[in-house]
Design brief:
The complex is a heterodimer. Chain A is an alpha/beta fold. Chain A is built from 17 helices and 19 strands. In chain A, helix 2 packs across helix 3. The longest helix of chain A is centred in the middle third of the chain and has 28 residues. The termini of chain A are far apart. The N terminus of chain A is likely disordered. In chain B, helix 2 crosses helix 3 and helix 3 runs antiparallel to helix 6. Chain B starts with a helix and ends with a helix. The chains are: A alpha/beta, B mainly alpha. Chains A and B meet through helix 6 of A and helix 2, helix 3 and helix 4 of B.
Amino acid sequence: MSAAAASEASRFGRFEVLIAERRLLVDGRPIALGSRAFDLLAALVARRDRVVSKDELMDVVWPGLVVEDNNLQVQISALRKVLGAQAIATVAGRGYQFTLAAPAPGSPPAVEQRAARAPDRAGAGPVRPARLLVADDNKVNRLLLCRSLELMGHEVASADSGRTALEKLRGEHFDLLLLDLEMPEIDGFGLLEQRADDAALSEVPVIVTSSLEGAAQVARCIELGADDYLHKPVNPVLLKARVESSLERKRLRDQQRELLARLAPGSGEAPLSAGMLSTPRRVEVTLLAARLHDVDALAAAQPAHDTLELLGSWTTLMLDAIEGHGGRVHQISGDGVAAVFGSGEHVDAGVASWSATQAALEMVQLVAMFNAERSASGKDPVVAGIGIASGEVLAGLAGTPRRAAYVCVGSAVQRAVRLAAQATPSIGVALIDGATHAALAGRAASEAVPAAGTKADAKAGPVFALRTG
Amino acid sequence: MTMNEAVIDPHTFDELQANAGADFVAELVDTFAEEAPQLIDEMRSALDTGSTERFRRAAHSLKSNSSTFGAARLAALARALELEGLPPDASGIDAAARELETTLAALRALARA
């Protein structure tokens, strides 16, 4: 439909994705990838202008199959192993996004970098192609509006009634709705009213197009949440300007939301996912802390850029493991990550401790894989410790109106952090406290380790090392 | 040609062709030629059954489409029907139907030109 969408740019610095041939080249050499991993890569590349949800990716990679999240996790990890951990960003609670645009640092010279980037830009075009829905019962109006929007490079679908439009909006993704007011069954006003009560529908901006006369109609549309109003017959120049402006506003809103989700994990979806975010409360949860040991020594031995890249990659892997098992990250400190499991309304202690344990075991595997990758490029391995503790915490959003963060407060939080600090290859890289051990009820293999640390730890009971082999 | 100019505003029609493409506009004229007589029928049926809202809606659609093609005279007739509500007799509809014939002939000629 649009020439811009058809010319799929496939070169990302050192990497070249040949969609039709199902091959990935690194520095011009083919790399062996499993077919699911390639499907996943192709899906992420095709949708690289946005965050793709896990559900959507699983639908593409395993169409018609019901698979567990961790299958996706494994494929993501495999791709990160080839492309580098930063190539695929995890956006807390929302999914994944392919991030490579410019060539990877260090490979082609600057001139080539610009050349490699150019087709990417040309592919996006001056107007970013978007998916629009035109709702109009009048065939002449509908055809003409669709034609005008297609000529601007957008992908356009149409609906001939308010009811059909609502069905399409609920079933498919659209960036913008162009809405006629006079329609049978559900008219434009009716659609706007239903949209106002539906958080998901409200995400799609609306431009009303109508030849109804009178300022009262325009005012009513704006009151009902329409972004803009265009009088029919629609002037093509105005149409282009308003559509681009609406799409740009939506793009900025989406960007802000993603940024917020990255900077303050959990806060973005707070009002929707209930849990404990909206009102602070006391809950029985399992806390997981992971930390990199001896970062100072690593930092002293290598350039600052390498250290930052290392911390970024490691944090990405840890967040993957946490989110893949339903945990919610409440702290990221560069060389440490802390998360809470079981914060939802209906999660019991057994499920929370099990999920946290599974996340910990995956972290151990991911760190081993990460170290194999580092060793292949002549770098020292990293050592990470994981601590898990269960107990009651106070959790919620805390701060001032200008700056707020999701916080967990309680002795179990500190205990998990201390266990992570104590966890080393000699006594065990993943330590769990007595309460977690009891909640697991023998479902995960572990061994008692000698008590270490403070009086508070001693009072909290025995410590166990998870068997990770 | 002078008659065409009176029925269709040449500036509006030229702009439409420039913006949407002459071939597309020729198809759009065909669609209008299929749809518009149904709007006239809908107005007659609404008048027979005393349905004010159906009448207004059909007149509104005819006005809207006429304006798109620059058919100013037909648009004015349809607008009068839309605003005045259910008429006492069919004379206004008859006038719009006659103007529609003239309009379609003019549009087809312009679209082929």
